[in-house]
Amino acid sequence: MHKDPSASITHKESWGTYHMLTLNTPEIATLAAPGQFIMVRTSLLHQPLLRRPFSIHAVSGTELIIFFQSVGVGTRLLSLTNRGQALDILGPLGRGFDLSGDLKGLQAALVGGGRGIAPLFFLANELRKMGADVRIFYGGNSEEDLVLRERFASAGFAPDCSTEDGSYGYHGLVTDLVIKDTREAYAPDRLYACGPDGMLQAVGELAHGLSIPAELSLESIMGCGFGACWGCVHKIRKDGEEAWRKICEEGPVFLAEDVVWRGEDR
Amino acid sequence: MTDLSVDLGFCVLKNPVIAASGTFGYGLEFQPFLDLNLLGGFVVKGLYYDPRPGNPPPRLFETAGGLINAIGLQGIGVERFAEEVLPKLQGLEAAVIINVCGDHEEEYAMVVDHLNGLEGITAYELNISCPNVKQGGRCPAMDPDATFRIVKEVKKISRRPLITKLTPNAVDITGVAVSAQEAGSDALSLVNTFLALAVDAESRRPALANVLGGLSGPAIKPLALRMVYQVAARVSIPVIGMGGITSGTDAAEFLIAGASAVQVGTANFVDPQATLNIISELEDYGRRHNIEKITELIGTLKI
Question: Catalytic annotation on B139?
Answer without folding.
Answer: no
